TrEMBL record:
GO terms for molecular function: cysteine-type endopeptidase inhibitor activity. It comes from Suricata suricatta (Meerkat). Gene3D superfamilies: 3.10.450.10. InterPro entries: CSTL1, Cystatin_dom, Cystatin_sf. Keywords: Disulfide bond, Signal. CDD domains: CY. Residues 26-136 form the Cystatin domain. Belongs to the cystatin family. This is Cystatin like 1. It comes from the Eukaryota. Residues 1-25 form the signal peptide.
Length: 138
């Protein structure tokens, strides 16, 4: 059953009908609102903030302060379109990575951003890729 089998118009028509029927039953609805529970988004948020901190030249690390909006779309994996507030912590970049870094409270060191980002993930393979992000000072 090589390339020559597609020369039969009836076989080609049957294949097209099958593809059309399968597409009818499996509809992709686009992005859907999801819970704004940080617990449900933990691994995606962790990936984003690690990526952000690695790209940042700030002396201090940032952490997700608040999950503002979360939307999800199923594709070949899962796409998350997320809006978060991130804030500068008291932990320095070159120090030991502490999981509980308090948010900076000194007025001259306080800094926060509102970030929108799009992450593609295949969670069952522990695969994450940041497709887009933008942050504006809050």
């Amino acid at each position: 059953m090589g390339v020559g089998c597609w020369r039969n118009p009836l076989l080609l028509l049957a294949a097209l009908v099958l593809v059309a029927r399968l597409g009818h039953f499996q509809r992709w609805e686009g992005f859907q609102e999801t819970s704004t529970s940080m617990k449900n988004m933990n691994s995606t948020l962790k990936f984003f903030i690690e990526t952000y901190n690695n790209a940042s030249n700030d002396t201090y690390l940032f952490q997700v302060d608040k999950l503002l909006r979360s939307r999800m779309q199923l594709t070949t994996g899962v796409e998350y379109m997320v809006t978060v507030k991130i804030s500068r912590t008291k932990c320095k970049r070159n120090g030991t990575r502490n999981h509980s870094c308090p948010i900076q409270n000194k007025k001259n060191l306080k800094k926060s951003f509102i970030c929108d980002f799009l992450v593609y993930t295949v969670p069952w393979m522990n695969y994450y890729q940041l497709w887009n992000n933008s942050c504006l000072e809050a």
